[in-house]
């Protein structure tokens, strides 16, 4: 395997950090205030820290507000902050009211964002951010009006006509997974990446779930490992989720791959999947050995590892992504005739509609409902 195909595990450019948490709830909603005031208020509201209970009604109300804001994941709050920053800047530039907003201004803003090249998904996030801003401010929600939905429908249709809708990443089914594993060596990075791929596949895990696994989340059982996810995107109530990682008898066994990686890396506590890097060479001597970090890799690194291993196996680097393992597990189960209820359980989806988004249908002629009749 050509090492040049594998990018360094160095952390990506970090996203904008959330502001320092406020010790108390932010001031009342800044209705009819300048855009800069609205932006500062929203930032403070999104990061409000739960205050220490002192028995007063005001503190209880501040805590309730902070808990409500915690219902959104960090990535969602970060995306909403970016959307409100863009909205406030646009309103300031055009001298328009920011909060409450008018639906006519909202559709113009969404059209302007599309005009400067933003994707449909990003524009959808902009609309969601505006909806959330008005919701927490107790204002009428302008994004609920019909012509906002019509504008978004038109943006999606225009993107489809231009061939700009995002294509789904290839599902890393069992057959494709074997191809990804074939060129992986037994060096430290190879053992880590093999374990990461197999655990992600066997558990139908998202990239953020993979990156967050800690040793204490893994419990040995007679038939494999029980993985506890403290947080999962599919579990909106905040409950912990358990995932079974069964023993296998083939090269796809996630438990044995994970054990080999832990033993080689000497990991007995903390993050399971960690950054590995090679110090720079000095002089003409042999390259220094790889070094293992102590902190968990981030979700972006999970996606880069999958793509690097895909490139090393002869696939287009961008053909697979962070969700390919989850899609591959569910698609493999579907191809094996597993009941949709079991697939929904494996993927930890709340509805079959969401499950369908992860399935990659095989040959459409195979098992056609009218086969043998036509």
Number of strands: 5
Structural class: mainly alpha
Distance from first to last alpha carbon: 49 Å
| Backbone shape | globular
Series of H and E elements: HHHHHHHHHEEEHEEHHHH
Spans with pLDDT under 50 lasting ≥5 residues?
A: 1-8, 10-25
For the largest beta-sheet, the strand count, sense and barrel status come to: 3 strands, antiparallel
- What's the helical proportion of residues? 40-55%
What does this structure look like?
The protein is globular and about 65 Å long. Helix content is 47%, strand content 7%. The chain contains 14 helices and five strands. A hairpin with a 2-residue loop joins strand 1 (218-221) and strand 2 (224-229). The protein has a three-stranded antiparallel β-sheet with strand order 1-2-3, with no helix packed on it. Strands 4-5 form a two-stranded antiparallel sheet. By secondary structure, the chain is mostly helical.
Outline the secondary-structure elements.
Layout: H1 35-46, H2 57-69, H3 74-94, H4 103-115, H5 120-137, H6 146-161, H7 174-181, H8 188-202, H9 207-211, E1 218-221, E2 224-229, E3 241-246, H10 254-265, E4 274-277, E5 291-296, H11 299-312, H12 324-335, H13 340-347, H14 352-358
Antiparallel strand pairs: 1-2, 2-3, 4-5
Helix pairs in contact: 1-3, 3-5, 4-5, 4-6, 8-10, 8-12, 12-13
